[in-house]
C-alpha cells in the first residue's frame, strides 16, 4: 500500500484539471486543486449543470449502495472510479452507507481509483481506520490488470455475489472498449452479482447551450465520453435491470432522500431530472 501511494504521488499533476477532481470540487469535496475549482467556475458561467450533476451523482451513488446492501443483501462492493467522494458528509461516505444498511457483520468495500490524489488521500484517511475498506490503484481502461490486482482478488470473495459499481465510464470514449469493459466485468462477477452504471449524456442539454458546452469540453476535457440513452442502454444488453431501469440519476429510487441532496438547487434537480446530465442503472448479472 505504501509503495502504491508513493508511486501515485510522483504522478500527481496540480496544473491540469481532472474529471474526478472536478466532480469532487463541484460537489463541495476536498480532494481537488485550485485548477479543478476554476474549471467548475468556468462551467458555471455557462450553466450550473456541472455542480447540479455532481450532487445528483452523489445522490445516485448513495441510494444505489443503500439499496444493494439493505434490499439485495450485498455485502461486497467493488466501486470503480467514484472518486471516493469527499463531498458526502462525515460518516456518510459510500462505505459508511453500506455498513449501516447491511444486515450482516460488515460489508467489504474496495475502491478502485486511477487519480493519484484521490487514491493517496483515501488510503491515508480511510484504510488506517477501517479494516473493511481498501483503496487500490487501477484504471478501468486496463480492466484485465485491474481484476488481477492482489487486493481485488483476495479482499473480496469471488465465490459469492458482489456489486460492481462502474462510475468511470467518462474515460471510455471508444465504444468497443466500453462494451469490452462491461462484458469483462459481467463475466468476472459471480452469478447473482449486480452491476451499477453511471454515464454522462447531452440528451437533456437545451439546444441553445449545447454549442458552448461542446466547445468548452473540447478545450478542457476533450476525451470525455458522452453517450445517448440508446447507446448507454446498449452497454447493458442482456442484463436484468432492477426498477426503475435506466433513468436520469435523480429518478433512480428518488423516494429515498439522503444527505447528499440538501440544497434548493439539488431539489430543483429532482424536479428537472434531465438537468443532472447523467443516466444511472443497476442490473442483476444472470
From TrEMBL:
Keyword terms, alphabetized: Methyltransferase, Transferase
Gene Ontology molecular-function annotations: methyltransferase activity
InterPro entries for this protein: SAM-dependent_MTases_sf, SAM_dep_MeTrfase_SAV2177_type
Superkingdom, taxonomy of origin: Bacteria
Residue ranges that the Swiss-Prot or TrEMBL entry lists as coiled coil: none
EC number(s) per entry: 2.1.1.-
GO biological process, one term: methylation
Protein name: SAM-dependent methyltransferase
Amino acid at each position: 500500500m505504501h509503495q502504491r501511494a508513493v508511486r501515485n504521488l510522483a504522478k500527481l499533476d496540480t496544473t491540469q484539471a481532472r474529471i474526478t477532481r472536478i466532480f469532487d470540487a463541484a460537489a463541495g469535496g476536498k480532494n481537488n486543486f485550485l485548477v479543478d475549482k476554476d474549471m467548475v467556475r468556468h462551467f458555471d458561467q455557462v450553466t450550473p449543470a456541472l455542480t447540479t450533476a455532481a450532487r445528483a451523482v452523489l445522490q445516485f451513488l448513495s441510494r444505489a449502495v443503500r439499496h444493494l446492501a439493505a434490499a439485495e443483501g450485498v455485502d461486497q462492493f467493488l466501486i470503480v472510479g467514484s472518486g471516493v467522494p469527499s463531498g458526502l458528509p462525515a460518516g456518510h461516505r459510500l462505505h459508511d452507507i453500506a455498513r449501516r444498511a447491511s444486515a450482516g457483520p460488515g460489508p467489504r468495500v474496495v475502491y478502485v481509483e486511477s487519480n493519484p490524489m484521490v487514491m493517496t488521500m483515501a488510503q491515508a484517511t480511510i484504510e488506517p481506520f477501517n479494516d473493511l475498506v481498501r483503496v487500490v490503484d487501477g484504471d478501468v481502461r486496463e480492466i484485465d490488470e485491474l481484476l488481477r490486482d492482489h487486493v481485488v482478488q483476495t479482499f473480496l470473495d469471488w465465490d459469492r455475489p458482489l456489486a460492481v459499481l462502474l462510475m468511470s465510464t467518462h474515460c471510455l470514449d471508444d465504444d468497443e472498449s466500453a462494451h469490452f469493459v462491461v462484458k469483462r466485468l459481467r463475466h468476472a462477477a459471480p452469478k447473482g452479482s449486480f452491476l451499477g452504471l453511471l454515464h454522462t449524456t447531452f440528451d437533456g442539454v437545451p439546444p441553445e447551450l449545447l454549442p458552448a458546452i461542446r466547445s468548452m469540453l473540447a478545450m478542457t476535457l476533450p476525451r470525455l465520453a458522452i453517450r445517448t440513452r440508446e447507446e448507454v442502454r446498449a452497454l447493458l444488453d442482456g442484463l436484468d435491470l432492477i426498477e426503475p431501469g435506466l433513468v436520469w440519476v435523480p429518478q433512480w429510487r428518488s423516494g429515498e432522500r439522503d444527505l447528499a441532496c440538501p440544497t434548493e438547487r439539488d431539489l430543483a434537480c429532482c424536479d428537472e431530472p434531465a438537468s443532472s446530465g447523467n443516466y444511472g442503472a443497476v442490473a442483476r448479472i444472470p
